[in-house]
Amino acid sequence: LLTAGVVRWVASCADTGNRQSSDEQAFEDACRRALDLRWTRKGLSAHEDGEDEPAEENNHAQDAAKLSQSSDELELAAVDVLELMLGSSVIVGLHPDQAAEFAIQLALLLQKPFAVVPCCVYSAEFTKRKLRRTGGPVRTYEELLEYLQDLDPRIQRAELDFEGKCTLLFMTAEDARAEPSSELLQSVFGHESQLSSENSA
Question: What is the pTM of this model?
């Protein structure tokens, strides 16, 4: 799962060049939460201990048991995931659910091109999202697109030719080379990171 904590971890490792970061715990937490997710009739949800699983979910439980890892294995996986993210040439998300904003933030922080097709709004989970234009909450799909596009003025929009949610938000490789804005750094780190001060020196 791509979360705000994972974005901070990857960006701080990219910033310092240190592959071990105090934020690595965010990656391990995200892995554990991902192993606990189950597909239900209502979409993805966390599995609770003692809950009876329908027969169609038993395969997922067996897969999760196989994937269950020790802390040492998660640490190894963290290094691999970090190298993969830092070495990627583009960030892509097709209907990434709650990870849409985090995928875009990650791309902006790492100065990589991206292509993200958002789908669901999840307004109940992201209550702090506010539209720049009105200051109002993000509740509709069109408002989500506006909110995400407002993360950076270089983000472009295009419509893809397939059924369902098909609006692509993207940034070209040429546009992605610019430094992350102080506003983005503030929203991700809660303060202006060394990313901007060191890169501008």
Answer: 0.76
